[in-house]
Specification:
By secondary structure, the protein is of the alpha+beta class. Helix content is 15%, strand content 33%. It contains one helix and three strands. It has a three-stranded mixed sheet with strand order 1-3-2, with helices on one face. A hairpin with a 2-residue loop joins β2 and β3. The chain is globular, with a radius of gyration of 12 Å.
Length: 66
Amino acid sequence: MSLLDLTGYTLKDALEKIKESSLEIEEIVVTSEPKSCSQEYDLSYRVLRYKILDNKVKLLICKPLE
């Protein structure tokens, strides 16, 4: 059994991998530069960090550089 690695994936691809692995999304948190506190995101955002506990996934994502 291989471990799931989501770091660096777009949110779209990460969500597909999570679904394939029969896991559930518990939380998606957006991080950004100081003075920017928007929690809105789209499927192009990238996964920085994730945590899997009891078949639930918490994702930390950020807007990709343009």
